[in-house]
Each structure stands twice: as C-alpha cells, then as structure tokens.
Amino acid sequence: MTRIILTALNLSLLVLFPIAWVAPLMRAGLLPLFGLNEISMLSGVMALWEEDLLLALVVALFAIVAPIVKTAGLALVHFRLTDSRLLAPLTMLGRLAMADVFLIAIYITLAKGVGVGRVETAWGLWLFTACVLMSFAISLATSALAKRGALG
Asked: Residue 41: which domain range?
C-alpha cells in the first residue's frame, strides 16, 4: 500500500514540477507606482540566457532537468522497472536538484537589472518549494522501503 501511495505522489510531481516552472515565483518592479512583472522559473532561465549563458545552463540543469530525471527514475523504481540500486545515484541527483541555485540566479539577475525596486513572492514559489520537499520525502520513504525489501 505504501508503495502505491509513493508511486502516486511521485507521478503527481511529473505534472506539478512543469506547472511550478511556468507559475509566477515572484513579482518584481522598479518602483511601487509601476506594475510588477511576474517572474517564473522559465522566464528567469530565459532572462539568464540573454545575460549569462553558462549560468542559464547550470540553473536549467539543476532546477529543471535534475528534478524531473530524479522523479522519472523514482517512478522506474516504484514500478519495478529497474533495480532499487538506482536509488543511490538518484539521491545524488536529488542533491544537485537544488531550488536555491535557481533562486540565487534570479536574485543575481534582479540585482543586475533592477537596482531599485521591490520583489514580492508569488504562489509559484510555494508550489515549487512544495514539489522539492515532496520529492525529498518520497526519496527518503522509497529508500526506507528498499532497505526493508518492500520494493521487490
């Protein structure tokens, strides 16, 4: 039963992560009198792409590619399509899938471009944070099941 719940939660991340990538993470504006521009993960990567290609690639790898590859790998383990020994590399991949790398890069972009203004968090930041935390919890629970031999 636990494996089924973990599988369902993990599969939900395959939908929730892409939503989090396009959801507004924050709103930033130059002055309080002007409207705020919404910044999503994808728009942040695109802005970085124009300013610093290497940083954009690193952020895309750690904030987009690593989490989805880890989620897909966990799905393979849950469906018993691969050996549970894949959990060790997936754990390492999970360590690379750091949300803070993306957030730091966004702040760098904002600091370069805005200088004076304000930043407000938006619902996408909460969604992305929840996805990262849920992925972490699923990984821990899957590893615990594998140690007990409950993954087959």
From this structure: 2-148
DSSP reduced 3-state for 146: helix
- What is the number of domains present in the chain? 1
Q: Where are the alpha helices (DSSP H) in the chain?
A: 2-22, 41-51, 53-60, 66-78, 87-96, 99-113, 123-148
User: pLDDT per residue over 59-114, tens digit each?
Assistant: 888 889 999 999 999 999 999 999 888 998 988 888 777 666 566 566 656 655 65
The model's pLDDT over 35-49, given as tens digits with 9 standing for 90+, comes to 668 888 899 889 889
- For 43-54, the DSSP string reads HHHHHHHHH-HH
Judging by beta carbons within 10 Å of its beta carbon (0-12, 13-18, 19+), is residue 86 exposed, middle or buried? Answer: middle
Return the CA Rg of the chain: 18
3-state secondary structure of 129: helix
CATH of the domain at 97: 1.20.140.150
Closest CA to 110 of 62, 43, 34: 43
Q: How many CA atoms lie within 13 A of 63 on its CB side?
A: 26
